[in-house]
């Protein structure tokens, strides 16, 4: 029997399960997706994932014994040392002993981390941070998550909260109230949700314009629509995205005083706005701090899109595997 | 001849040179102090330091060949890989190749880092962070310096600017202009300088009070006087220190989103205000962030006072010495 050689990386989201087959170099060989249906409980979700994994392995000529292990990115707060989901608003789960459950029922090693951290690890392993030791990674979607990479590993801090930058206060005046109960959080000022709210406000206030047309025909506006309009040159939409870019640029400058990162990677749906977002973001970033602070820092777009989570989740197993092989060689 | 066993740690400040004899456990055996006279140039300062070191060694029965090396904490921006002082406002020096000069003329290994970083290393080695792997250390005096400790070493970032938190913007409204040209920097709102300015404003505005008495008799008020009055219960002075505590508490909460440190150590002259400062600081810190973020973080006063710099500077040599002994044992 040959050594197990393949990893499974899972991005377990509130809407869908994305599952990838990843090799030891971090290449995503294939992937599959299915609705999460978290309300049916974690036993059912575990069964769904197990069947998906079996099919994915089988389809590529692997059996379960070829699988080194399964890494999973989970939205929410985790008790990392024990692999417990303390609270996941997106999944509607509390205190779920997921790692133990999966390891026992699937009989393979299982590793968990939060979704923003695995996205950062994916970009580090095979994306924008491929050659970088230390970086800060932002994932901007409905909310804003962050991952801090130090010495080519995720940095967790005292209780796994390092990089949870969505609730840093970035605005004092005219600030929106956040889900967390505070005001002016990064998440309420620079996420897809913020873009949608800004677009709705503009559409309601203005006499005419593309945003108003969309709003009047459908009763709502999505961030994706605003981003598309901005890229096409619509002035209102551009302004909304540029404002977000400036908020992010100032925020990243402040954070740089603490970590002085070599690389900042910005991913998630909002990063699809490309230059409309990145040009004001980088200009504001450079203008908002001492020149010495930002001169060695690059700010770039994430490269892996929604594959980052699967690849980064697989890296959790890769790290464990490489460490134990190393120990094996050092203490034979 | 026995192996060299003793370290010299130097805190090279704008006003004085503090030099300590430190053993391999980080104990400060003895120390001495002299005026810096940086204006006379680095050759002269180097001679002064060499004579001080010779005396200190001799006084305790050591010769130069017993000295493993000299670590130095310097105020300002350094090119760390090359040991060059890029710019030190306090010393009035620019582009000084100090490490090379000292190593060549003194003929011992020399290591440099900035003053806030060596203070943090001192507290880590033998002070408040003795048993801690990761911490954030603030030194609050005329300015505000910071040091980030990760995995029992200083974290420098891309170009040595990590932890230079004095210029993070903490105030939008009614903010003072900083030396750096921006407004509302931590340093202009929470340093000894900020305390003095707040005290002067109060003294000028109010009809009576202790602060006004001091101001009228001497034409100025020092931070030390305000801190002393606050500790004695003077309401105006307490208010000034409490305001500073609140600014620091909010700032540290925001920074914790990025690093989630196990320990935050606050040192420097302003920390002598003790509970008058720490009580509002800690209360604001805990109230300014998600409970999960701060629940594992302790905020404590630095323990080593102005010895931290000397001990931390000696640690720079200790690290190098321990690493090379380790290499020696592994590759004999």
Spatial shape of chain A: globular
Taking all residues together, what is the mean pLDDT of chain A? 94
Order of helices and strands of chain A: EEEHEEEEHEHEEEHHHHHEHHEH
Total DSSP E strands of chain A: 13
- What oligomeric state do the depicted chains represent? homodimer
Largest interface: A-B, 40 and 40 residues
Beta fraction of chain A? 15-25%
> What is the strand arrangement across the widest sheet of chain A?
3-2-1-4-8
**Count of DSSP-assigned helices of chain A:** 11
Largest sheet of chain A: 5 strands, mixed
Query: Can you tell me the residue ranges of chain A where pLDDT is under 50 for at least 5 consecutive residues?
Result: none
How much helicity do the residues of chain A have? 40-55%
Short synopsis of the structure:
The structure is a homodimer of 332-residue chains. By secondary structure, chain A is an alpha/beta fold. The first copy, chain A, is built from 11 helices and 13 strands.
Structure characterization notes:
Two copies of one chain form a homodimer. Chain A has 332 residues and is α/β, with parallel strands linked by helices. The first copy, chain A, contains eleven helices and 13 strands. Chain A has a five-stranded mixed β-sheet with strand order 3-2-1-4-8, with helices on both faces. In chain A, α5 runs antiparallel to α8. The radius of gyration of chain A is 21 Å and the shape is globular. The first copy, chain A, starts with 5 loop residues before the first strand and ends with a helix. The model of chain A has no long low-confidence stretch (mean pLDDT 94). The interface between A and B is large, with 40 and 40 residues.
